[in-house]
Amino acid sequence: HDDLPAMDNDDYRRGKLTTHKKYGEDFGILAGDGLLNLAYETMFNAIKNISSDYADIENAKKMALYSQAAAVIASKAGVDGMVGGQSLDVYLTDKPMDKEQLDYIFRLKTGALIEAAFMAGGILAGCDEKTQGLLCKAGYNVGFAFQIKDDILDVTSTQEVLGKPVLSDERNNKTTYVTLYGLEKAEKDTYDMSKEAMGIIKSIGHNEYLEELINMLIHRNK
User: Fold this and answer.
1) 10 Å Cβ neighbour count for 194?
2) Count of domains in the chain?
3) Is residue 197 within 8 Å of 142, Cβ to Cβ?
4) 81 & 160 share domain
């Protein structure tokens, strides 16, 4: 959906034609709808496949954790998360945007789903509320830094490296972190937020995969 003409209107993604350019806008919309529903189908099937012996305490606990994780993902993807952030982003296209509005869009449009990924993993692992809060904070920082990095790459990379057109935000008259703060601050804030997230993950311990993931997301060149 993000590549559609009504959104970012991008022709390429990861070096290949976007779905609507290759198959038409109608199939672009349907493909996005289908993938979104597949995500919910996957979560519900995971819940369904838990043994139906609800008298078993372990099964009941597992069911509760799976349901809680699914609810977090659904909330972060909906109007209070990704959809809400994208809606404001579209609404403010061609309009001046201040820091508070841009931060709000970043937190919801990108940060919410990354928060959901961190939080859902913690829930399924049975983390306590304190650890859940730390994971949420780490996810917020990673999501925010990821979006700043996206804005940086849009003005510093090339289509050959990025796999999609550069300067698309400028073409669509969108305010970005770079246009609002400048490239130097954007790069500094990306580093600072990812460093804070890394510190949180290290404080929890035994999360080498998440540490590698943060490094990969923040130091990517495409």
Assistant:
1) 23
2) 2
3) yes
4) yes
